[in-house]
Design brief:
This protein is an alpha/beta fold. The protein has 15 helices and 8 strands. Helix 8 packs parallel to helix 9 and helix 10 packs across helix 11.
């Protein structure tokens, strides 16, 4: 059964009626069920287009967090062949919130890394809801360094509300691990393409997203803090999250305008969760085009270009 968001309730009632009609047998001398289904389906499509044509930042936040939205492992399964997962940070443990390994993207060897939230209760607990501990970021750094050693492009899929905020994570050097992961992104002598597929929260997201190209799905979000966290700090009231979402400029459209992300990938009507295979293929096509361009650059040029890209952010505002 499809999960509907709060602002989709009118649509939920309509689609529920359509499903009810489809299960009915054609009554004798009564209404034509096929015609009624077609009429309601057309009405539901129009309602869906209307809803998604004017989403607020807070509504986009809800879409980015949709439980049925394809997660990092779905993109890896859909785009990477011969995938060989690699585990552990070679220092403490393996963190299931960060998944990664080697495989082939359209026949080309790559290293792929992602933050995985999980798709049901069991997998969400296993992957700690996509909130990585220090060993997760140290694993990511290890894989990036491995990619550089073997001259393999790096593909990252970011979907996290942020790094795990627990005391144990802080005790094991959470901030240092994130900083080292960002450093590894910036120093990688190979192309690094980062895709924000859902939530891009705080340093936990930047740790995997300081790439040559940062692309973002249409209804994904990317911000230094969650709307609820921002509202709790500024107004001491998490209920002000919708106001905070507006102020944070966390949507793909806002961030493309600010030069924080390089490309926005359109989503199927109604969000990636309504047509996950279509969304995964679109992301694959976007990666393929970008990778072919970046592959023409030598390691020195890549690193210099990446450095200039991030140094340029905010310069206009300071001028």
């Amino acid at each position: 059964m499809r999960h509907f968001l709060e602002f989709e309730k009118p649509l939920a009632e309509m689609e529920g009626k359509i499903e009810e009609l489809r299960r009915m047998t054609e009554p004798e001398g009564g209404m034509n069920i096929a015609e009624e289904v077609a009429r309601l389906t057309d009405k539901a499509d129009k309602q869906l287009r209307l809803l998604y044509a004017k989403l607020t930042p807070w509504q986009k936040t809800q879409v980015a967090r949709h439980p049925e939205r394809p997660k990092a492992l779905a993109y890896i399964r859909g785009l990477i062949t011969d995938f060989m997962p690699l585990a552990g940070d070679r220092a403490f443990a393996d963190d299931a919130a960060v998944v990664g390994g080697m495989g082939r993207f359209q026949g080309r060897p790559v290293v792929v890394i992602g933050t995985e939230k999980g798709h049901d209760t069991e997998t969400r607990v296993k992957h700690n809801f996509g909130m990585a501990r220090p060993e997760g970021y140290r694993k990511a750094r290890r894989l990036m360094e491995l990619a550089g050693r073997f001259k393999l492009p790096i593909l990252t899929f970011v979907d996290t509300s942020g790094a795990f905020p627990g005391i144990d994570a802080e005790a094991r050097g959470q901030a240092e691990a994130i900083a080292r992961s960002i450093e590894a992104c910036l120093n990688a002598p190979v192309p690094l393409i980062a895709t924000i597929i859902g939530e891009g929260g705080s340093g936990g997201a930047i740790a995997l997203a300081a790439g040559d190209t940062v692309q973002m799905l249409e209804h994904a979000i990317y911000s230094v803090i969650s709307p609820e966290g921002c509202a709790s700090i500024l107004w001491r009231d998490a209920a002000q999250a919708a106001v905070a979402a507006e102020a944070l400029k966390l949507t793909a459209e806002d961030l493309r305008g600010l030069g924080i992300v390089d490309r926005v990938i359109p989503e199927p009507l109604g969000g990636a969760h309504r047509a996950p295979d279509e969304m995964i293929n679109s992301v694959g096509a976007a990666i393929a085009g970008t990778l072919s361009q970046l592959s023409t650059l030598d390691p020195v040029a890549l690193k210099q270009r990446r450095r200039e890209k991030f140094l340029a952010m905010g310069r206009e505002g300071l001028a």
